[in-house]
Amino acid sequence: MAKKAGTRAAASVSVKAGASPSRGAERFRGTRAAHEDETGEDYVEAIAELIDERGEARVRDLSAMMGVSHVTVSRIIARLARKGLVSTEPYRPIELTSSGRELAARVKRRHEIVLAFLRAIGVGADQAEIDAEGIEHHVSEATIRAMERVLRERGKGR
Question: Which of 24, 68, 72, 117 has its CA 20 to 30 A from that of 3?
Fold first, then answer.
């Protein structure tokens, strides 16, 4: 009986929302694409960080850093290569292209501003780092500029 009620409720919500399956699929497709972009930004930023710290970035390093499998990293690197952000050859370190370096610099800047802002408003270091990782992908450039302005006014800015 509970199963029928749940099914009716779900059908009712779908009808009330007026969402056709194709519109719903399009919405989720857009969300997946946005998450794909976020993942790409995180990887480009991580590659730049590894190159700065170790002189090179390899799949095994990214796998350990991101806590994912070698296969997952390889798939993401292949996607980034198709987008012109990295270049890679078998058994060689991953290199950032000029576009990849520019993206890494933009993402790092956004991360640093969001992190500094969160710390300035009293968020603890560990939590601020966690929150900055998510916020940096979703905050507008106008908000980033406002955060920078507040940091400058407080004497903690760039």
Answer: 24
Q: Closest Cα to residue 119, out of 71, 75, 157, 68?
A: 157
C-beta separation of 84 from 97 below 8 A: yes
**CATH T-level topology, domain 107-153:** Diphtheria Toxin Repressor; domain 2 (1.10.60)
What are 107-139's pLDDT values in tens digits? 999 999 999 999 999 999 999 999 998 899 888
**Start-to-end C-alpha separation, the chain:** 62
Neighbours of 43 (CB within 10 A): 25
Distance CA 148, CA 152 (A): 6
pLDDT digits (tens, 9 = 90+) for 8-43: 333 333 444 455 556 667 665 554 554 557 889 999
- The CATH architecture that domain 24-96 belongs to is Orthogonal Bundle (1.10)
Q: How many CB atoms lie within 10 A of CB 72?
A: 15
Residue matched to tokens 């199963």: 3
Cβ pair 100, 85 in contact under 8 A? yes
